[in-house]
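ok trying this again, last paste got cut off
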Amino acid sequence: MYSFMNQLKHSTTRRPAGNTSRMSSCPRFTELTENVKFLDRYDDRRDDRDGRFDRRANREADSDHRRRGRSASPLADRGPAAANEPPVKKKKEELDPILTRTGGAYIPPAKLRLMQQQITDKSSLAYQRMSWEALKKSINGLINKVNVSNIINIIQELLQENIVRGRGLLARSILQAQTASPIFTHVYAAVVAIINSKFPQIGELILKRLILTFRRSYRRNLKQQCLTASKFVAHLINQNVAHEVLCLEMLTLLLERPTDDSVEVAISFLKECGLKLTEVSPRGINAIFERLRNVLHESTIDKRVQYMIEVMFAIRKDGFKDHPVIPEGLDLVDEDDQFTHMLPLDDEYNPEDILNVFKMDPDFLENEEKYKTLKRDILDEGSSDSGEEGDGSDDDDDDEEDENEEEGDDEKVTIFDKTEVNLVAFRRTIYLAIQSSLDFEECAHKLIKMDFPESQTKELCNMILDCCAQQRTYEKFFGLLAGRFCLLKKEYMESFEAIFSEQYDTIHRLETNKLRNVARLFAHLLYTDSVPWSVLECIKMSEDTTTSSSRIFVKILFQELCAYMGLPKLNQRLKDQTLQPFFEGLFPRDNPRNTRFAINFFTSIGLGGLTDELREHLKNAPKMIMTQNQEVESSDSSTSSSSSSSSDSSSSDSSSESDSDSSDSSSSSGTPD
């Protein structure tokens, strides 16, 4: 229909103008003309509608560009002529290679040094950033090169870098290298152990990140990451960087709800640190293998995992001969320099990821100088550094400096450790020895073998007392241990005597539970005569000289003594005549008020039988006071009478002397010449 009407329209338009007047009178022609006009209007409307559709499409394209963050193409706005023109190339923004994520393209060391020399301000942001990038590349390169044969050289080169500033980079490099090459885990553990002996905060940071990695992998069921992380932890335990408690916690977690993967990780972990656990915690490893036996017989695990458990029992039977604690050539840290971190598995840790990122240091130059001093102390590079700093001086000046150094060597410089690092390390060693011992005899043997100086004797006794106080309830282990040391050497007994007096003076600082444990420990020492009973001399029973804490201490002390000895024997010991001077403060007789206070106190704690003599003394006190007053009065009267008689005799003597003098003078005057 539409094509026919178009043909009709075109045919009518091609007719000559002369026939229009004749055809206009024809009704058929009129009808056709109206139809043509209708078609023209239809075409106009259709064009308008198509235009609206085109505009709508353009609007949608514009909105799509805006949604994607791009504006519409400028060529579409400039028309067809502009669209044919070639696009203008934008200039590439020049990026600072130092500011890119990977540190930019490789810069040769000579060029990098030249760039650093061109920066005059050493504390500027640009210089710090360049030194940070150089530090990062150096640490990465050294960690990737380390092996058993060159580990000592690598450590020396590593300490040349400021690893205190780049401790985050160092931790990340070591963890990434160990994840990529688990076969070298023992080497990386030795590196961490050496660095930890000099910088314990770096070892702690690495261990924290390792614990967080293990926990995250365990939650996400990533077996391979769990295997690598647990292997690293095992070797750190072997190197005494981490405590064996962390190992037991990880094994308990893996075997709590056993699956094929968790049991496989536990067995791999146990192979690496089983020998170390056997040495330091036999009870713990026995419990772990008992759990493995239950898993083998009760759990529905894969045959392959069952075979792994059986192989693990065979390895234990052979004494872990193929899995030594520390491989040969990697035992590089002295036992005295080792620093063990007590980091439980379930605590919240901050990985300190901000240390991986560059941050401007306002005290950059000062911190660099501090690290240089520390580096010289560690590497014994004082002579070489002084030679490098004095390259421009004359030979005469060098000779003078050598003479001054020789003179200075004669005078020893005493260094006072105000940070108490050695004390903290000593207390940690004592704590670990106590916690890893089965009985007090084994613990005493371990502590004696440590061969610590005599100046630490009192600190050892204090540590035993502190460990006892920290327990929830009193454990006889600590009383037996303290008693054994008191019997071994007189110095230990004297130390505990001094500690008793100090503890009683500061007893108000202790919580009730700690106070109870301390009192029971000293009661055990008194009962076994490990310390003399003269230590009770510091106790003064009166309302003014005691506090609530001190009264609780005395109460628990004597109740424990009564439980050990019985009331008759305790009373007999307190009535010993040789010890009475030391019990004058405990059972005061100087003032009836204090005597009454002591009687009431011991009666209230159920030990009134100890105060029989005090009661008799209190009854006889008025009579004694009266007799004392009478004696005082009689002594006063006797002294007054004796003084009067002495005055009379002196006056008579003086009169007789005057008479004799007068007679002598008269006789001399009557004699003739």
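PB: full thing came through this time. The chain has a mean pLDDT of 79.
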